[in-house]
Design brief:
alpha/beta; Oxidized Rhodanese, domain 1; five-stranded parallel sheet; two-stranded antiparallel ribbon; 7 strands
Length: 169
């Protein structure tokens, strides 16, 4: 009887051990700033000066603006591609198909772009750099790199026509 119980107990312990080691611990944050501060420990930053040098050199890279479209529509860094942070995972492959090309990513102050930069390596983008201090920092140092009211491939949508009222208006 005891010979049958020992393998059974070991089997149960092995299953419990395996189940306890399979899941990753999910870190919980009190707010977005805390999450961003943690992410800053894992990403690579580029200074405004180094981004300007890359632009001036003619180096081939993607420049991703992960701010919302209305923010992008008011001003962006010349040559930037707008992919709002909430759409990044679904649009990055289409708008930045070369996974080995360097990606410089920015937002207004560096928080959203830092969080975005933690996702891109999981999507097999190898060279991701966050603009330190975001467009706000670059604007103060190199205002000539900005483009005001940019229009890209997508034409800005017009306001919907006024409804005549009633059903199907």
């Amino acid at each position: 009887m005891q010979k049958k119980i020992i393998p059974f107990v070991w089997s149960i312990l092995l299953v419990i051990f395996m189940l306890s080691c399979t899941g990753k611990e999910i870190k919980k944050y009190n707010n977005a700033k805390e999450m961003s501060d943690e992410a800053k420990k894992t990403v690579t930053f580029v200074s405004a000066e180094n981004l300007k040098a890359a632009i001036d050199s003619g180096e081939k890279f993607y420049l991703i603006d992960c701010r919302e479209t209305d923010e992008f529509d008011s001003a962006c860094i010349k040559g930037a591609i707008n992919i709002p942070r909430g759409l990044l995972e679904s649009q990055i492959a289409e708008k930045a198909p070369a996974h080995r090309k360097t990606i410089f990513i920015y937002c207004s102050n560096g928080n959203r772009s830092t969080l975005a930069a933690t996702v891109l390596p999981k999507l097999k983008y190898a060279h991701v750099k966050v603009l330190e201090g975001g467009i706000d920092n670059l604007k103060a140092k190199f205002p000539d790199l900005l483009e005001l009211n940019p229009i890209r491939g997508d034409v800005k949508s017009k306001a919907p026509a006024k409804s005549s009222g009633g059903c199907g208006g």
